[in-house]
Amino acid sequence: MTTTDAPEAAPRPPAGRRRIGDTAFAGLARGSGLLILAILAGVAAFLIIQAWPSLSANTANFLTSNVWEANDRESPAFGVGMLAFGTVLAAAIALALATPIAIGIALFIVYYAPRKLASLLGYLVDLLAAIPSVVYGLWGIGFLAPQLVPVYQKMAEHLGWIPLFAGPASTSARTMLTAGIVLAVMILPIITAMSRDVFHQVPQGHREAALAMGATRWEMIRLAVLPFGKSGIVGGAMLGMGRALGETMAVAMILSPSLMMSFHLLQSGNQTIAAHIALQYPEATGYGVSALIAAGLVLFAITLAVNMGARYIVARGSKES
């Protein structure tokens, strides 16, 4: 009886060399993580230092005032509360519109569309992320807004009893709702891509078990796919919201400059922090520049809070799964 020789094991590198490689890689990884923290701390420190002169000299309530006279060297007065409200409102509208559509597109691509059609749709959705924001702004103000004027009038006529849709509707449709629709289109590829990747990772055993129990395709998605991908969907939605919070050109081109707080989505009014900074910075001097940086500090805090909340939700969802 003959026996086959066992394959020889590959020679192992010397222990010292292996430890040096592990130590170097661990150091690089640790240094990269610390670098991110240092950059974040540096940005925060820059914003605080540059914003402090205007904050200390401000004669108005920084959180509630709706005036912006920051270029006054003797008594600058400005408030950022109205801008923060507009920023959150625009991002919330975009998120409410984009998230269900993005989930539907991702489910169709992964579980319903033929393979060739799914590849084409995935490519087209990803292509939306490559379009510059100024192009979205031109599309919003040149095409979408005129088309929405009669729609807004009908909404004010039939849904005016709802405070959000109270009239009179804007005759130019340069409203927060229009800006929210444009932002929804802009963040759609981000949420769709994240959701699509999560749906691809659902274990095949979970899906087959649901189908074997007699579930329909929709029941399989509802019982096996959506619970598994919940944390990924939330993470994608928060990434999209971060993009909407910081969007500048598209919003600045659509909204009329205004410092007010209004829940009426069909009327002109409201402005976002990023758009206000873009519009005011070219003419800002002295305290005006510092005041705009103070507004940027508030936007930085809002974005940081949103991302921290998203990380908590994602981590909690992953733990529950």
TrEMBL record:
The chain crosses the membrane at residues 27-52, 83-113, 120-145, 165-191, 286-306. One of its GO terms (molecular function) is phosphate transmembrane transporter activity. The keyword Transmembrane applies. It is a multi-pass membrane protein. One of its GO terms (cellular component) is plasma membrane. Residues 84-310 form the ABC transmembrane type-1 domain. One of its GO terms (biological process) is phosphate ion transport. Keywords: Cell membrane, Membrane, Phosphate transport, Transmembrane, Transmembrane helix, Transport. It is found in: Cell membrane. The keyword Hydrolase does not apply. InterPro entries: MetI-like, MetI-like_sf, Phosphate_PstC, Phosphate_Transport_Permease. Part of the binding-protein-dependent transport system for phosphate; probably responsible for the translocation of the substrate across the membrane. Belongs to the binding-protein-dependent transport system permease family. CysTW subfamily. PANTHER family: PHOSPHATE TRANSPORT SYSTEM PERMEASE PROTEIN PST, PHOSPHATE TRANSPORT SYSTEM PERMEASE PROTEIN PSTC. This is Phosphate transport system permease protein.
